[in-house]
Every structure is written in structure tokens, then in C-alpha cells.
Design a protein that fits this description.
alpha+beta; 18-stranded mixed beta sheet; single chain; globular; Diaminopimelate Epimerase, Chain A, domain 1; 2 domains; 18 strands; 6 helices; 22% helix
Length: 269
Amino acid sequence: MRLPLYQVDAFTSSVFHGNPAGVVPLEEWLTDDLMQAVAAENNLAETAFFRPGDDEGVFELRWFTPTVEVPLCGHATLASAFIIMNDLNPDLDMVSFDTRSGRLHVTRDRDLYILDLPTHELRPREAPADIVAAIGAEPTEAFAGQNYLFVFETEADVAALKPDMAALKAALEPADCGLICTAPRDGEGDFVSRYFAPVHGIPEDPVTGSAHCMLTPYWAQRLNASSVHGFQISERVGELFCTLKGERVEVAGRAAKYMDAIAYIPDRL
């Protein structure tokens, strides 16, 4: 099969920054094994596959890391919407995706793409000792939910983290989740974060839209503000504009297309 393959850098306005995602538009689903093989070959944090839904502007969407299918991925959702609204159907200013996390909407507002995502719960708890040992630093607060969330005093504390990835993977495997580390931002913006998901084949994710489903309610409450401005300070750095709306979170960012190609994919493995 000859299939279109795009690579989009999400949550940035220029290539080589933000989080790269593979995007593969389909007419019908490939087998799960074949989609997983394509994602492994791309070797990006996520590759998104979508096909048309029953209504105009509605698509079915799935996300794969190099090793597993995941229930939610913000940056690959933004990348998929970017390709639809710029390359496939430029007349659209909103698209909807039916996913394992329910129906998600992405709206275009000039150069921003606004994702409508569910909030993730925050359950206060003590930081697990094995996770603390793996990252080599003690947080001031810790929460559990779809991921662990560790809060630190300063941006420098988060920037300095050098996790032992083997130990961190072993510590996170029982919960089958990742670790978000966050702190107040020095200078422009409200907060910074980093995200580690070695259990899912992603030692450190460059920019993670879904992590802001936990980060937004935390920082909105802490700062007593409905809208907050975050930077994910991986080596590639990403910028996110987040708004808490009840049980939903709007996560907005820019995107830049890096690659427009044709993939030659076998009919089956």
C-alpha cells in the first residue's frame, strides 16, 4: 500500500521544536499489528491514525507509541487536526475525533489549535519512595491519577532532573502510567513541566498535551486563574495555553509541518 505520511511538530511555531508526531490518514483501519509496526518504524513518541467518521468534520482517531496503543495523546491530536485543516480540508475550522477517551474537538483560531480534552483527577498522596529514588529528588507535593504528578519548588529543580530510566520504569510499571514533574515558571509563563513515560516506550516526551489534563486543574487552583500558560522544558521545548472549563480542559498550541511523504506499507505482517 502507498499511504500518505506526515510529520508535524506540535506545540511550537517552528520545526525542530515542540513534539513531533506521525500522522497517517486512512480510509479504513489497518490491522492493529500493522499500525503498531508503522509506529515503531516511525520511532516517534506517537503516530496518529485516523479515518473518516459518519459526519462531515468527524473522524475516528487512534494513537500508538513505538510499543503500545495509548488512550489519549494531545500532541498527535493537534497534529492530526493541523493536517486535516491545512492539507486535506482547508475549509474546516473545527474537527471532531471519536477516540478511546470519548469525542474530542479541535478548533482553529488563527495560528492556534485548541484541543478540548477531559480533566484528569488529582488525588493527593505521598510520593512513592521508589519513584523519588529513581528521579533523585523529593517533591514538595505529589498526586496520583492517570499519571503521577510531582510538584517542585523551582524551575531549576525540574530542569536538573536526571532520572535513572530503568529504575523509573520499574517503579512506574505497577501503575502503568507516567510521571509529570512541574514547578513555577521563572519569567514568562506560569509553570514548567517535564514528562517521563518509560513504561510506554517514551523515556522523556518532548511536549505532552494530555499531561496538561492534570497540570491545568492543579495550576488553575493554585494560581486562582482559569487560564494558565505553560512551557514543557524538554530539550525541544513546547508552549501551551491552557484553560480550565469545569470537567474539560482547553489546551491550545501552534504546529509546524516538517514532512509530507508516501509510506510503502505491506498489506499484512
